Amino acid sequence: MTNYAMTCAKSSLSSPVARLLRSLTLGSVLLGSTAIASNVLDRVLAVVNDEIVLDTEVLQATEMEARQALANVDRDSAEGQRRYDELRRRVLDSQIEKVLIAQYAREQKVYVTEDEMRSAIKDVVKNNNLNDESQLREALKAQGMAWDAYSSMLRQQLLQLKVVNTAVRSRVTVGDDEVRAYYAQTVRQVAGDQLQVHIQQILIPVSKTAPATTIAEKRAKAAKAVEGARAGQDFASLCQKFCEDGAKGDGDSGLISRSELPVELREVVTTMDPSDVRGPIRGDRGFYVVRLVEKKDAEVRPFEEVKETLRRQLYEQQVEKAVTAWLKELRRKAHVDVRL
Fold it and tell me: Which long-range contacts (CB under 8 A, 24 or more apart) does 245-249 make?
């Protein structure tokens, strides 16, 4: 069955908001979760100003997240227990953040109106291809979740979204100069990742632990190959003469992406022009001599075509940082006593 207890409006939730809400289980709520909580001796895991976070609520949220996050992990193993404990701590931190946000909302008199709740429920109905609210109620009931519990959870989510929008999002702006700088950075990255090169190479193998005299001898041999290539000698013939890596032939790579090259050669070929010869280049395997045959740059879309997409991406990145900083400040000013 489809999980109907989901975010109220997918399109409106950004990654930072989703991170804030990660411990709110908006999927199906299984009956087993209630059973877990009822069999645990409750205790206080954290005090946040004048409010408490209970073991039961953290355990329930942790168990529901673990169903996905640790689905393929043996929970009885030492590694499984370690990962579960890490997840439990993250869930506790998330619960503390939610309490802080709710307290901030009360201080700032931020509330969720009944009109906003009705609109959110309509969004849930629409996003799940249901006919009306009554069908949503039936779906939740079939999954073991009471309507009041779901409404409370949805209201909490909407409140967090409103607070983040008010306290953080409204204060983040992205100027044109920032977008242009981001475009230039993205172009450099894309060009590097998608650059295709056609090279010929000679490898003179030598271990990094070889004696200094041996390393010097191999370097000199590679230098002779460079000298011959730059003098116009046929590179395939030079490869036959100098290669020691067991792959004689003509040393021709064909057209490949830059990422397929040995790490030591990637930056070098980026700055080369066709017919350039570079070397000796020290690598993990030995000394390389490289001749560039052809280079094809990545196709880059014009700035005007992508600027608004980049603006949105940059905005979300800045909001993410702003939310993180805001939460840290909120927590710094609060009295938080963690007892996990």
Answer: 245/203, 245/205, 245/285, 245/286, 247/203
Cα 5 to Cα 47, 128, 155, 164, 213: the distances in Å are 29, 9, 12, 22, 70
How many domains, in total, are found in the chain? 2
Residues recorded for the chain: 340
**Residue 8 reports pLDDT greater than 80:** no
pLDDT at position 249: 61
Nearest to 102 by CA among 149, 152, 67: 152
For the stretch 307-338, pLDDT in tens is: 999 999 999 999 999 999 999 999 999 999 99
Any alpha helices (H) in 108-252, and if so which ranges? 114-127, 133-142, 147-167, 176-194, 212-230, 235-242
Domain range enclosing 167: 10-174+317-338
**Does residue 189 lie in a domain region?**
no
Q: Is 303 domain-assigned? A: no
Residue 311: inside a domain:
no
266 shares its domain with 222:
yes
Does the residue 227 lie in any domain?
yes
CATH number at 245 reads 3.10.50.40
- For 174, the 3-state DSSP assignment is coil
| Closest listed residue to residue 38, CA positions, set 65, 64, 57 | 57
Give the Cα separation of 166 and 104 in Å (integer): 11
CB 73 within 8 A of CB 80: yes
Residue 206 has pLDDT above 80, yes or no: yes
Distance CA 291, CA 293 (A): 6
End-to-end CA distance of the chain: 36
pLDDT in tens, 253-294: 888 888 888 888 888 888 888 999 998 999 888 999 999 998
Q: Which pLDDT score is estimated for 331?
A: 95
Supply the pTM of this predicted model. Answer: 0.58
